From TrEMBL, chain A:
Its main location: membrane. This is ABC transporter permease. CDD domains: TM_PBP1_transp_AraH_like. Pfam families: BPD_transp_2. The chain crosses the membrane at residues 33-51, 63-85, 116-138, 183-205, 236-258, 290-309.
TrEMBL record, chain B:
The lineage of its organism: Bacteria, Bacillati, Actinomycetota, Actinomycetes, Kitasatosporales. Residues 1-21 form the signal peptide. It comes from Streptomyces marokkonensis. Keywords: Signal. This is Substrate-binding domain-containing protein. PANTHER family: D-ALLOSE-BINDING PERIPLASMIC PROTEIN-RELATED. The keyword Signal applies. PROSITE patterns: PROKAR_LIPOPROTEIN, TAT. It is found in: Cell envelope. The keyword Zinc does not apply. It holds the Pfam family Peripla_BP_4. Residues 28-51 are annotated as: Disordered.
């Protein structure tokens, strides 16, 4: 079995020596080294931002801004991290965010006020996650295909609901949540939700049997099954979890943008996957951390922020973003291999 | 409609008659030409009176945002107004291959005229050529084909003019203000139209040496991206005098970011002409003071042109016997003064 697992690890040869399944403690230790190197990258970015635009970058408002902008994709990334750790992938996250955000902002839903919008967003997210989960766990579909199908259908349905129109939110309770007046001790409510999702995600992954089962399924599904884990049910739950995160993210996006639009969540799937990978989650499953993923999101958001503050244009931004992804992964590898 | 002969036949009939009779005839048949037109006034111009039956094939991209949706609505409504027009409308698609297939189906159906808004103008040039070779004249709507051979008439918006007019509007408002600071929230940078809008804006601002464009960021025509980029722009610039936003859809997000940042020291000019923007301009209780049109009514005009083409007529109000080969719609500035006039054209 170990022989079967080792080939994909060839792409990361320094991380796992000679096909030996790494001990649990070693994994934890390496994860910490990775986290440190990510913090290093983030610190370097903060230094660059602080030097180039000291007044605008090192500012409470800017910190609030960066964290707020990171919240929506951050919540999605937490769900995505669980799915990737289990050896799966969820390409439908952006489409689910779009569908949930437009379903929750139709004229009919808005009649039910704050609760109606929140409830609808979460239920639509869970519903899509359920469909993904059933297709993958019990329908035997490959996650890539099942969620790709969901991507297409959810985007189509979102377009059908909106007819291409921007649905503006008129419920004051929802809009107020995005205003400065509702900041709690200077922390925007969106950021509080992001923080809560991160903490809960960390606890679930590291301190519960659910988390350990997720890692086990991703590491070796057959071994997990032989060890008595109901792999199918675990997979179903994981896609439900990802759907739930998308529902929450959709609500945050509604608050942030004050509207629902079928173009919402554009390319979130790639942003979330990239953040998770930068954060040290293995695409082949079996390893990954919530802290790493969240740092990945913060690195991306900080880059965007620094570029915008320095008035660099989209072309330069995209080139540099690609370069920084490569650099971040290389730095991590080096750090991980030297210890 | 059989009891009303076409204007051309009537023109022939009365061709040799006294000039006063000719004036009388056109007075009856054309709603648009006045009595004081020059001698060529018996030219057959398209008007509201039913004429020869025309089947118009319409192929557009997927209506995934407000403006494109308004394009479809405008085309359908205009065609519905004419009893002599049958509109064959295809399911919109952003996929080049699929749109080519749809247009080829319309060619095989032998529609009389095609109106095509390509998802990608350059990529669909071949199918435009194919239609023209099959003897079906093409009205190319907005996104232009690679070669004029692929269409009989092009009608579209003026992206450079949008930027120019936005720049002049802002320039006039700020011309007495020393060291005025302006920022630009552009649309999707991959598109040529974004470059043209920015170029027009920059060229207009050159006329006002006291105004400096201090920052520019590109959003993606979506509410979400508008909010995100505007929030960053506001953080980067602690004080500005004016903002030009290329698109009213992303403007919904931009306005949200402005509200969240609690800023109101500047004037904002939008682009495209969404209903929500018109309403905000009319209410006059925020930073949005004007928007520059990229009128979706061009689709209605495209139907008019296609109908005239199918009936072999010219355009009312112009002296030529044929429709023009190119029509560029004006990017009017809509502000509080004239917003009522445009309210009905605003799209959701």
């Amino acid at each position: 079995m170990t022989q079967n697992v080792s080939p994909p690890r060839d792409s990361t040869p320094k991380v796992s020596p000679a096909g030996e399944p790494p001990a649990w403690r070693a994994v934890l230790f390496r994860a910490d080294v990775r986290t440190l190197s990510l913090l290093g990258v983030l610190a370097a970015l903060i230094l660059i931002g602080g030097i180039t635009k000291p007044d605008q970058f090192l500012d409470t408002r800017n910190l609030q801004l960066v964290l707020t902008q990171a919240s929506v994709i951050g919540v999605v990334t937490v769900g995505m991290t669980f799915v990737i750790i289990s050896g799966g992938i969820d390409l439908s996250v952006g489409a689910i965010v779009a569908l949930a955000s437009v379903w929750a902002t139709t004229v009919a839903t808005q009649e039910y006020g704050f609760g109606g919008i929140l409830f609808t967003a979460v239920i639509v997210g869970l519903g899509c996650g359920l469909v993904n989960g059933v297709l993958i766990a019990y329908g035997g579909m490959v996650p890539f295909i099942a969620t790709l199908a969901m991507l297409a259908s959810a985007r189509g349905l979102a377009l059908q609901i909106t007819d291409g129109r921007t649905q503006i939110v008129t419920v004051d309770g929802v809009l107020d949540l995005g205003e400065r007046d509702s900041y709690v001790l200077g922390v925007p409510p969106l950021v509080l939700v992001f923080a809560a999702v991160t903490v809960i995600g960390w606890l679930v992954l590291n301190r519960t049997t659910f988390g350990r089962r997720t890692v086990a399924v991703g590491g070796n599904a057959e071994a997990a099954r032989l060890a008595g884990i109901d792999v199918r049910r675990q997979r179903l739950y994981l896609y439900l979890l990802s759907g739930l995160c998308c529902g929450i993210a959709a609500f945050l996006l509604i608050v942030l943008a004050g509207s629902g639009q079928n173009t919402n969540g554009n390319l979130y799937e790639l942003d979330a996957i990239a953040a998770a990978i930068i954060g040290g989650t293995l695409l082949t499953g079996g390893r990954g951390t919530i802290v790493g993923s969240v740092l990945g999101v913060l690195i991306f958001t900080t880059i965007t922020n620094i570029f915008a503050l320095n008035n660099l244009q989209s072309d330069v931004q995209q080139i540099a973003k690609g370069a920084i992804i490569v650099a971040a992964v290389l730095v991590q590898r080096r750090t991980a291999s030297t210890t | 409609m059989p009891k009303t002969p076409s204007t051309s036949r009537r023109g022939l009939l009365f061709g040799a008659a006294a000039v006063s009779a000719g004036v009388l005839v056109t007075g009856c048949t054309s709603n648009e030409s006045g009595d004081d037109e020059p001698a060529a006034n018996d030219q057959p111009a398209a008007d509201d009176k039913p004429g020869k039956q025309v089947t118009i094939g319409f192929a557009g991209p997927q209506a995934d945002h407000g403006w494109l949706n308004a394009i479809n609505d405008n085309a359908k409504k205009r065609a519905g107004k004419y009893s002599d027009v049958t509109l064959e409308i295809t399911e919109g698609s952003n996929d080049t291959a699929q749109q080519i297939g749809q247009i080829e189906t319309l060619i095989n159906k032998k529609v009389d005229v095609l109106v095509i808004l390509p998802a990608d103008g350059k990529a669909l040039t071949q199918v435009g050529l194919k239609a023209m070779r099959a003897g079906i004249p093409v009205v190319n709507l907005d996104r232009i084909f690679n070669t004029p051979q692929a269409y009989r008439c092009w009608i579209g918006g003026d992206n450079y003019g949008m930027g120019l007019n936005a720049g002049h509007y802002i320039g006039e408002k700020l011309k007495d203000k020393p060291d005025a600071r302006v920022v630009e929230l552009a649309g999707l940078d991959n598109l040529e139209l974004t470059k043209q809008r920015t170029q027009g804006f920059d060229d207009a601002l050159k006329n006002y040496p006291n105004i400096k464009k201090v920052a520019r960021q590109a959003a993606e025509f979506t509410v979400e991206s508008g909010q995100a980029k505007m929030a960053q722009l506001l953080q980067a610039q602690s004080q500005i005098d004016a903002l030009w936003n290329h698109d009213d859809d992303q403007g919904v997000g931009a306005l949200r970011a402005i509200e969240q940042a609690g800023r109101d020291e500047f004037l904002m000019v939008g682009g495209a002409g969404a209903l929500s923007a018109f309403e905000a301009i009319k209410a006059d209780n925020g930073v949005l003071k004007a928007t520059v049109l990229y009128p979706p009514t061009m689709a209605a005009s495209a139907i008019d042109l296609a109908r005239a083409l199918g009936q072999g007529k010219g355009v009312g109000g112009l002296a030529e016997f044929e429709i023009p080969s190119s029509v560029t719609c004006y990017s009017a500035v809509v502000d509080k003064e004239n917003v009522d006039q445009y309210m009905s054209t605003g799209f959701k």
